Amino acid sequence: MNLSDSVTSLKYVSSSYSEKLDRLGIKSVKNLLTYFPRSYTDSSHIDDIYGALIKFKDGVEEFTIKAKVDEIKSIRLRGGNRTLQNGQVSDKSGSILIQFFNQPYLTKALKYKQEYLFKGKIKQKGNQFTFYPTVFEEVKEEEESIHLGRISPEYALTAGVTKKWFRNRVKQALDLLKDNEIDLKELDNIDSLVKTNTIVEYLNELHFPENEKTLAKAHDALALLEMADVHLKVKNRLSKEIKKYEKLDIAKASKDLKTILKQIPFELTEDQNQVVSNLVEQLQDKKLINCLIQGDVGSGKTIVSFILAYIFAKQGIQAAILVPTTVLARQHFDNAKKLFSFDKDIIVDMASTENKKAEKSNLLIGTTAIIHRNEHLIDNLGLIVVDEQHRFGVTQREFLLNNLKQKKTPHYIDMTATPIPRSITEVFFSDIDVFSIKSKPKDRKRIKSYLVPSNKRKDGYRWIKDKILSEGNQAFWVCPLIDNSEAITSKSVKEIYTDLKKNLPDLKIEYLHGKMKKQEKEAIMKQFSENKFHILVSTTVIEVGVDVPNATIMVIENGERFGLAQLHQIRGRVGRGSDQSYCFVFTDDLPEAGSEKEASDRLHYFVSEHNGLKIAEFDLQSRGPGEVYGTKQSGIPNLKLAKLTDLGLIKKSKSLAEKAYNSGITEISLFN
Q1: Where does the Helicase ATP-binding domain lie (predicted)?
Q2: What's the rounded Cα separation, in Å, for the pair 203 and 215?
Q3: Strand-pair partners of 165
Q4: In a 3-state reduction of DSSP, which class is residue 136?
Q5: Which of 320, 346, 389, 566 sits between 20 and 30 A of 486, alpha carbons compared?
Q6: Are 209 and 215 in contact (CB under 8 A)?
Q7: Is 197 helix (H, G, I), strand (E, B) or coil?
């Protein structure tokens, strides 16, 4: 049997079972064997009947015993089709009555004088003790048990697939693969953890462990291989890009940097200066820029991109700054026009899907429509800056570069305000430069954040109204929904807009959401920026990049509906000026139990912490990468064993991947 064989090649996997397995994503033998247990049940301690009765008297209820069947018969109960199966089992220490309900087939399934493992509870009525097995398994001399008397796997299954049937199929596949190689033999000679066992042996231990120690060893070995495979994929993708690269000469980068630094009307922070200097040094050394710039909202990443774009545009080499929304593109465009007003040689164009008549220019600012519409591009695009890269996904870079009709690979900068934990950068950005802008402009104050329960809502309204009217500032009011939903109990933009108009009649209020036309959104944002109204009720369309320094209050409805990294970004829409800013997270009362308690803990952590990286680490630990980043959007794989929070594993797997890559191994097929 080979890993690539269809799961239908296994015994007892009919077409109907194949359809059920397909719901679990299992089509091949490999899919089956890498569908790992979600937990384990330990029934390895086996009591004899006498010992079980002694323990029962001491308060223990559930036992696993090994005994022979002396008798089993079925009795029909009065009033209906209910049946009772009575019997007796025995071992060398004694005997005990057993009883089942509505399982008449057991009179044939349980064989006389055959030994079985039984797991269940003992109950006492008067002087009578009765054993009620919930599961049993026949003991065969030449075969190890699968379901009882050992550590047994528990899987997340679908309707119509029992755990006993599924375990049997996994065991069958492992037995048939025992004498086959899983094309990883080369790795056995690379790492001591891997070389002690074959991959099949590790798979067998992970599904049917002998003990907790061998289970842990198998898990660690296969998790190491899984993470190494992720590193290999990243390395292969980057190596392909490097092979396509032809150098693009930026001869006067340092001189142009001095020019723009003299002209811009503010002083860069220490972090901004460091990042700009590093990138210009790479240009001077004729090195390809391939980097990620991360920094909290308001830390000044955009000006760094403008400075680099200026250096390229000044030398007649086109630069493109891509953002996720047209609202943000318009804002960047307006800011760039002001910033570059001292140099008329720099041409700035706003290019988007609607703006088809934009002339070709040295500096383009827009959405990814710039790349889709090649008429905007000249043949020497030298720099691509992708702002808020987490919105595009990791495949966006490859698409952008492959869609260009030029031989030279442009320099590439990703920017994000989404704090990325160190473990994530170690894996997915391991072969590119990662720069962090931690400091903010000197006049910025820490945003004061508060969690507001539902019984304090009216007090919050009054405080916000008084603050706006007395100081002339403005407020964002963010909701998770546009309209009310029967399926989701959350505040909507239209509901809150109506509520605020009623409760705050002295204030001017408008609303904004992603389904509105581009012209409407831009008009409303322009009015808000010009302080034409007090409160903007919105969805998270304002999450990315919107800059209104006069807005000092952020209200977030149903904070439990957002991830912490997203809350941190939303909070960053205020605090853009020198005035003190505030963030209020309105939430329904959360019970202190279960998932609701976890949500409450996360929100309490959020309002107490302002370090974006710490918030990201906490979010990753508590929710996992799938929920934090959205695996489809981010390109982060659904890891089965490895954890992106395990830095030790990441470093070890990176070393293993390097050795594997140098040995000519491009992927670990077990995880593909």
Answers
A1: 282-437
A2: 10
A3: none
A4: strand
A5: 566
A6: yes
A7: coil
Amino acid found at 302: T
Buried b (16+ CB within 10 A) or exposed e, 190-226: bbeebeebbbbebbbbbbbbeeeebbebbbbbbbbbb
Mean residue pLDDT of the chain comes to 83
Question: What mean pLDDT comes out for the span 204-226?
Answer: 92
Is 651 a residue whose pLDDT tops 70? yes
Angle (CA) 277-574-559 rounded to 5° is: 115
Find the range with the poorest average confidence among 62-71, 90-99, 589-598: 589-598
Task: Provide the pLDDT for residue 500.
Answer: 94
pLDDT in tens, 436-491: 888 777 777 889 999 988 888 899 999 999 999 999 999 999 998 887 665 566 78
Long-range contacts from 355-362, C-beta under 8 angstroms, 24+ separation:
360/318, 361/318, 362/312, 362/313, 362/314, 362/316, 362/317, 362/318, 362/319
CA distance 115 to 138: 6
The span from the CA of 376 to the CA of 365, in Å, is 11
Cα-trace Rg, the chain: 32
- Distance (Å, whole) CA 467 – CA 469: 6
List the strands of the sheet with 433-437, edge to edge: 348-351, 363-366, 318-322, 381-387, 411-416, 290-295, 433-437
pLDDT for 634: 57
CA-closest candidate to residue 340, choices 311, 318, 300, 368: 311
Which domains are delineated in the chain?
Answer: 1-39+160-180 (no CATH), 45-149 (2.40.50.140), 267-273+281-437 (3.40.50.300), 448-609 (3.40.50.300)
- For 295, the enclosing helix (H) or strand (E) is strand 290-295
Query: Sign of the CA dihedral 213, 667, 632, 423?
Result: positive
User: What does the pLDDT look like over 322-364, one tens digit per residue?
Assistant: 887 777 888 888 889 888 888 878 888 877 645 544 456 788 8
Alpha helices in 472-593 (DSSP H): 493-503, 518-529, 564-571
Phi, psi of 41 (to 5 degrees): -115, 125
Entry pTM: 0.68
Query: If residue 186 lies in a helix (H) or strand (E), which one and from where to where?
Result: helix 185-188
